[in-house]
Design goal:
heterodimer, A: alpha/beta, four-stranded parallel β-sheet, 13 helices, globular, B: 490 residues, alpha/beta, six-stranded parallel β-sheet
Chain lengths: 245, 490
């Protein structure tokens, strides 16, 4: 099976530790993951702001980069949702039959990390150790667009030493919303502040989620509030073999 | 007289103002969390809920596909049963029709059943300009009307008010509108309801003309349906001599049997009840019983525009339950006024642009962006309107409407630039080479949240991020460079 990592634009530029953790984790599980260097972004920032024409070259680059792989793994429910639900819209907009065909071939092979681990590799226990108290935020696109359900929790419950604590109001959106976070900054911050308060109230040392973009927002609020809670991507915990540094 | 939404600022600005109102946020958080829990319980006890959603969507879709035929059937059935059917293409026509019928009967007042269609067309203000007082008889609408306020919720227009505010409104405003509130009125719910009951009773008994909307219009029997909780609707629909109903053309369902679906999904979704307390149905005129002159005004007002939109037309399935408002994290924090329309919340964010068209005014164009696309609205919608999908679709329409303007917006320029960079690994790497060192200069200290130096502000269009959020400084090595250097083996 040829497996590619789509590291996400935010992960690529700002949070390389997440992509590194995915690589470490997948190799440990015997998957020889590749990083096709031509990759850019999934196009979601353009599509969700209404710039469909601008998204066309981004989606074209995406399918060019990942054509020929059996699976494209991305540490983001949101980018997975974008590939599965929005790339066809962009391709239709282009009116280019070749792009429409390419999207229909690549999109169904894009997996969120937790889906790939459980549905494709068939593992719950990835052999991780992480002796910390952790609370999990189910990001909206992973739960509502992908229907990811209990998969991330099953993975976390199998981690040695990890103590999972409830996040009150977990299903409520954190308020990131892509360009919503700056176009409607005041509302975004109000939502993020409530989410951060719930995280702090949970008593966890670490907040974990399957999307770096949501974590960037919640983490940004926590950091400004001088909270000691650490934010980590699910991949980073699953790649761990001991206490965090 | 109620207030007006005319001249409201665009959503971000209106939201910012609303977010500063601590009382409003407390009222909304309490009310929406209560109603969310009630709905979840009422829906959870039905095993076939998903089937009801699918059926509700399917009946509406097939009806909308042949709306012209169903409307003619409805008109014929209504006429056969003694109702007078009028057609109004817009708000002004509908208001004129109501005013002229009222004037024919020489009245200077009408009583009203709670109705979104009449709120949408600004009927009360239009009647006032003809010297006709329109008295709202739904408790929440009465609170809004007496408070010279604006509705902020579809089902509970006064959701932004708490009971002590309601007491103050009744005490100060009831006398000018009719029977005064008792001098010793408290904020106990039973006392408030009693004051409203006494105030409204004299209006019910006096009014010669009533105005209603309709939740459903059954085509084959010519039956209008109003569901409600307070019984005020039943009073208005039975006591006056003349009844005028303003009905959006999307309210039609083909047969009586179709109501089976919606009379289950509507109350559970909206008030969290298995069944609403009052369901009134009437078909034209019944000699010697109820209003002896019945008018039905079938209202377009942008609905055929929405119907022409391949993606957006699903919004016409809406049965105005408000479940999407109650679960919306944006609505919960900003309240309904920020949306600048009688249709607030997620459904308002799509319905207003669909009815009015985009590219016309900034306020309407801001509405599709008033969402994080979290999808909670779609999850609860009893007729499966995929609101996030429609929002994204409308955002593209807003952007397209402004393409080709002489001076493109800063956002349009930024998006074009971003698209170029994000579709090219070469340009992305170049941007990291330039941006990385600059960001690292701005990075200070070490945030426990990320274990990295943190940027606390940056200039330019991203500045709004930093009003209350940090951002880690860019790493010394991007993922791409790490992969190139190490082959993915750290």
């Amino acid at each position: 099976m040829r497996v590619a990592l789509q590291v996400t634009c935010i992960g690529e530029a700002l949070f390389p530790e997440t992509g590194q953790a995915v690589v470490t984790l997948l190799r440990r599980l015997g998957v020889d993951v590749d990083f096709p260097q031509g990759q850019g972004c999934c196009g979601q920032p353009m599509v969700n702001t209404g710039y469909l024409d601008e998204a066309i070259p981004v989606v074209r680059n995406f399918v060019d980069t990942f054509a020929g792989y059996d699976a494209v793994v991305t540490p983001s429910g949101s980018c997975t949702g974008s590939a599965r639900h929005q790339h066809s819209l962009v391709a239709e907009r282009s009116g280019d039959p070749a792009l429409i065909r390419a999207v229909s071939e690549v999109s169904p092979r894009v997996y969120d990390l937790a889906e790939f681990l459980i549905d494709v590799l068939g593992v719950d226990d990835v052999g991780a150790t992480f002796p910390h108290t952790v609370t999990y935020h189910p990001t909206c696109h992973s739960s509502r667009l992908l229907d990811i359900g209990e998969r991330p929790l099953r993975l976390l419950q199998a981690v040695r030493g990890l103590q999972l604590v409830d996040l009150p109001g977990a299903e409520q959106c954190c308020g990131f919303g892509g360009t919503f976070s700056v176009k409607n900054a005041a509302t975004s911050i109000a939502m993020g502040t409530d989410k951060a308060a719930a995280v702090i109230g949970s008593g966890a040392e670490v907040l974990v989620a399957g999307d770096r973009s949501c974590l960037m927002h919640i983490g940004g609020v926590l950091s400004r509030a001088k909270s000691s809670v650490r934010v980590m991507h699910l991949a980073e915990i699953l790649a761990s073999t001991g206490p965090m540094s | 007289m109620t207030g007006t939404f005319v001249g409201m600022p665009a959503f971000p600005e209106a939201a910012r103002a609303a977010l500063g109102n601590a009382q409003l946020r407390a009222n909304l958080a309490a009310a929406t969390s209560t109603i969310r829990a009630k709905r979840a319980a009422a829906v959870g006890e039905l095993a076939g809920w998903e089937d009801l959603r699918l059926a509700g969507a399917a009946v509406k879709d097939s009806t909308l596909a042949k709306l012209d035929e169903h409307l003619l059937t409805l008109e014929a059935a209504l006429t056969a049963r003694g109702a007078v059917v009028h057609w109004a293409s817009d708000a002004a026509q509908a208001c004129e029709l109501v005013a002229s019928i009222a004037q024919e009967h020489g009245v200077d007042e009408v009583v009203k059943v709670k109705s979104m269609a009449t709120a949408e067309i600004g009927l009360n203000e239009a009647l006032a300009s003809h010297g006709i007082a329109a008295w709202e008889t739904d408790l929440a609408e009465l609170i809004v009307q007496l408070g010279h306020d604006l509705p902020s919720h579809i089902l509970v227009p006064a959701i932004h008010r708490n009971r002590s505010e309601v007491r103050d409104i009744f005490t100060s405003a009831m006398a000018a509108a009719g029977r005064a509130a008792p001098a010793d009125l408290t904020d106990e719910p039973a006392r408030l309801a009693e004051a409203a009951r006494l105030h409204l009773r004299e209006k019910f008994l006096r009014a010669k003309v009533a105005v209603s909307g309709a939740n459903f219009a059954v085509a084959d029997t010519g039956t209008l349906v109003v569901v409600e909780s307070e019984g005020n609707g039943r009073m208005c629909l039975t006591l006056p001599e003349v009844l005028i109903s303003v009905v959006g053309i999307e309210k039609v369902v083909p047969t009586w049997g179709d109501l089976d679906i919606y009379l289950q999904t509507l109350p559970r979704s909206s008030t969290g009840e298995r069944m609403n307390p009052y369901t009134s149905t009437w078909s034209g005129v019944t000699p010697g019983d109820g209003p002896q002159e019945v008018h039905v005004i079938l209202l377009d007002n942008g609905r055929t525009r929405a119907l022409a939109d391949r993606v957006g037309r699903q919004a016409l399935r809406c049965i105005r339950c408000s479940a999407c408002l109650n679960v919306c994290p944006v609505y919960e924090r900003t309240g309904g006024h920020a949306y600048g329309s009688v249709y607030p919340g997620p459904i308002g964010a799509i319905l207003n642009p669909l009815l009015k068209g985009v590219g016309v005014d900034q306020q309407t164009d801001s509405l599709p962006y008033a969402s994080t696309l979290c999808g909670a609205c779609f999850e609860v919608c009893p007729v499966r309107i995929d609101i996030p999908d429609v929002l994204v679709h409308l955002r593209a329409q807003v952007v397209d409407a402004h393409r080709g303007t002489a001076i493109p917006s800063a956002e349009a320029i930024a998006m074009k630039g971003a698209a170029r960079v994000l579709s090219s690994s070469r340009l992305l790497a170049a941007a990291e080479r330039v941006g990385g060192p600059v960001g690292r200069i701005l990075g200070v200290g070490s945030s426990p949240t990320t274990g990295r130096p943190t940027m606390r502000r940056i200039p330019g269009p991203g500045a709004a991020w930093f009003t209350a959020r940090d951002l880690p400084a860019p790493p010394r090595e991007s993922f791409r460079n790490w992969w190139r250097r190490s082959g993915g083996r750290s």
